[in-house]
Amino acid sequence: MKKLINTPEHVVKEALAGMADAHPDLITVHYDPDIIVRADGPIQGKVGIISGGGSGHEPMHGGFVGKGMLDAACPGAIFTSPVPDQMLAATKAVDGGKGVLHIVKNYTGDVMNFEMAAELAAAEGIEIATVITNDDVAVKDSTWTAGRRGVGVTVLLEKIVGAAADTGADLAEVKRIAEKVNAQGRSMGAALTSCTIPHVGKPSFELPDDEIEIGVGIHGEPGRRRIKMVSAAEITALLTEPILEDLPFGSGDSVLAFVNGLGGTPLIELYVVYNELTKILKDRGIRISRRLIGNYITSLDMAGCSITLLKLDDELTTLWDAPVHTPALRWGV
Amino acid sequence: MHITAEHVITFIEQVATTIKAQRDYLTQLDSAIGDADHGVNLDRGFTTVLTKLPGVADKDVGTILKTVGTTLVSTVGGASGPLYGTAFLRAGMATGDRFELGAADVITALEAALEGVQSRGKSARGEKTMIDSIGPGIDALKEANAAGEDFISALRKGVDACEAGMRATTPMLATKGRASYLGDRSIGHQDPGATSAFLMAQALLGVVEQL
Predict the structure, then answer these.
(1) Does A230 contact chain B (CB < 8 Å)?
(2) SS3 assignment, position A149
């Protein structure tokens, strides 16, 4: 295993220290419990927005802390949900008197730890609302599984909801917009390789050189099926069709198209995928009115990509276009 | 037969030792159907618990168990942190300020722990989780205790049932947690949570057998 690490146990803390050194104007890092908070927070009179999850998905979530997006992020151990102490500390740190929204990806550990934190925060008199993202169409059956996983939509939701909070919206309104984004967005991913967790030291799952996993989760959870390697055009179609069928998206819709790299795929390949996506959507009469291409919700060094489509209306478009200034997303400032 | 607060401390120390010794085994089970962190996460939690025990050595059983619970919640993460944390917290709340536990108190504490796991995990038996070893274990313990058996032999039956329940998770289809995403591919693997629960039951028996 060749990795830019010193010791596996210290990767998360050393990366946090690096982030703090790199972006002192935007974020402040607190340790034990580990949280990343806006340098200029808490913002009085604004709903606080926090998220969190296992580390290894950078820049999500810590890279999205700053003006117009998250007020705080709670990084867990690699691929392990953070603990309630972190969410409680983050909630208190960002509370500006208008309540705090918790953005949680639908993974069992994340849901339970956020739930415990919300109970503790409520006991201390802070008003909490929670939105659980579950946009991964690869998971078909929620009766026999823990339900659809929260993946790409989480990034878009954090941006849009952050902007909504900046408008002075109250907690109920911010939660309404969060639920709308989750309801209107769908994602699916494909892995070309496995990924290696530093303290495990070997690939999390076996994927032969000539095979890919269609519908992979952000920790390498299995998807719908394994197939032989095919072209970018075919992979893009395999990911896009289930998304289009699920909502369903239709002719005349405007969407935000998000082509996301899983960490080990170069940007040039993501643009190849985006090019294929534009052709598929054009054929369907779906207009891409906004787009995001890059590595934003990753699985360590996994090669592959995910595609997310979010149906846009005027409200969501305006919020997406609003200024954002974070380590990983910046425009309009 | 009485289990004292001191015995409870010994039990927790034994759990910590067992989890450390079986850390790689648990993680290996978890890498087959989960995310390869069960052993690592529990070991991190119980290693921290060990540092907290001296501070509660002279306290009642409820305080000791609640300290274990809050420490696990604060350090383990993942799903097992809230689940085991809630289990120990609820057992501690059920035990209250007692310094000695009889058989009935132990059963009450274990039932409270199980109830906590079920409500926190929104899960029931047959879903390939720790509940599938804890549940049958408590049933067997209660049955033997109600039949008038002495506590050690009742607890042995409970631990045997716990082990059988753990083994019975192998052919089960996982419908909760990350293993559920494997669908049919989860069949044929023993559940790591059911395994760590069995290891804890074994540690309890080990302490009771030394009384």
Answers:
(1) no
(2) coil
Q: Is the whole-model pTM more than 0.80?
A: yes
In contact, A136 and A109? CB cutoff 8 Å = no
- Which value does ipTM take for this structure? 0.90
Q: How far apart (Å, rounded) are the C-alpha atoms in residues B61 and A217?
A: 42
Give the span between the Cα atoms of B164 and A84, in whole angstroms.
33
Which of 3.30.1180.20, 3.90.1200.10, 1.10.10.10, 3.90.1150.10 is the CATH number of A185-319?
3.30.1180.20
Under 8 Å between Cβ of A209 and A192:
no
* A109 to B81: CB separation less than 8 angstroms, yes or no: yes
Residues of A in contact with B79 (CB under 8 A): 81, 108-109, 112
Placement of tokens 């044929």 in the chain: B188
pLDDT digits (tens, 9 = 90+) for A189-235: 999 999 999 988 888 888 999 999 999 999 888 788 899 999 999 99
Enter the tokens of residue A84.
Answer: 């309630």
Residues of A within 8 A of B185 (CB-CB) are 222
Specify whether domain A11-184 bears CATH 3.40.50.1820.
Answer: no
